[in-house]
C-alpha cells in the first residue's frame, strides 16, 4: 500500500497501526488455537495407533489359544472348534477394521489440522508484516510532521527577524529598505 505522507496525519497513522496490531494479535491467537488442535489430532493418531496395535495383539493371542485348543481337542468336536474359531476371529477382525478406520480418520483430522496451521501461520505472517509496515509508516509520518513543524517554526522566526529588520532599517528615497 502506497501512502502519501502529506495526506496522513500522526493520529490517523496511529489508528491504522492500532488496527493492524489488533489484526496481528487476532491472527496469532488463531495460529495458537490451530496449533493446539494439531497437537490434539496428533495425540488422537497416537491413541488410535495404540488401539489398533492392541487389537492386533489380542487377536493374535486369541488365535493362538484357539489353535492350541484345536490341537488338543478331546471333548469338543473339530467342527465345533472351527465354528467357534471362525466366530471369534471374525469378531476380532471387525474390531481391527474399526480400529483401522478410527486411525484413518485420525490421520485425516491430523492432516486437516496441519493444513489449518499452515494457513493460519501464513495469515499471521502477512498481518505481522503489515503491522511492521504501519509502524514504519507511523514513524515516517511523525518524522515528516516534526520536520514540517520545525520548518514552519524556522520560517516564522525568519519572518520575525525580517519584520524587525524592516522596522528598524532607515527608509530610502524609493520607500524600500536598503
TrEMBL record:
Keywords: Coiled coil. Residues 31-65 form a coiled coil. InterPro entries: Flag_assembly_chemotaxis_eff (IPR053716). This is Nodulation-related protein, predicted type III secretion system component. The lineage of its organism: Bacteria, Pseudomonadati, Pseudomonadota, Alphaproteobacteria, Hyphomicrobiales.
Amino acid at each position: 500500500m502506497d501512502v502519501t505522507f502529506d495526506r496522513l496525519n500522526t493520529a490517523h497513522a496511529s489508528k491504522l497501526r492500532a488496527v493492524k496490531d489488533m489484526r496481528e494479535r487476532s491472527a496469532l491467537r488463531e495460529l495458537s488455537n490451530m496449533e493446539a488442535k494439531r497437537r490434539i489430532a496428533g495425540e488422537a493418531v497416537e491413541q488410535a495407533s495404540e488401539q489398533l496395535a492392541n487389537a492386533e495383539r489380542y487377536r493374535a493371542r486369541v488365535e493362538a489359544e484357539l489353535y492350541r485348543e484345536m490341537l488338543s481337542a478331546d471333548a469338543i468336536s473339530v467342527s465345533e472348534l472351527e465354528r467357534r474359531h471362525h466366530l471369534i476371529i471374525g469378531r476380532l477382525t471387525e474390531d481391527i477394521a474399526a480400529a483401522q478406520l478410527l486411525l484413518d480418520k485420525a490421520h485425516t483430522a491430523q492432516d486437516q489440522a496441519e493444513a489449518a496451521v499452515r494457513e493460519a501461520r501464513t495469515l499471521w505472517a502477512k498481518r505481522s508484516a503489515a503491522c511492521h509496515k504501519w509502524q514504519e509508516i507511523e514513524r515516517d509520518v511523525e518524522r515528516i510532521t516534526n520536520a514540517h513543524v520545525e520548518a514552519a517554526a524556522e520560517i516564522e522566526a525568519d519572518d520575525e527577524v525580517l519584520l524587525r529588520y524592516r522596522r528598524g532599517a532607515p527608509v530610502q528615497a524609493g520607500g524600500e529598505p536598503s
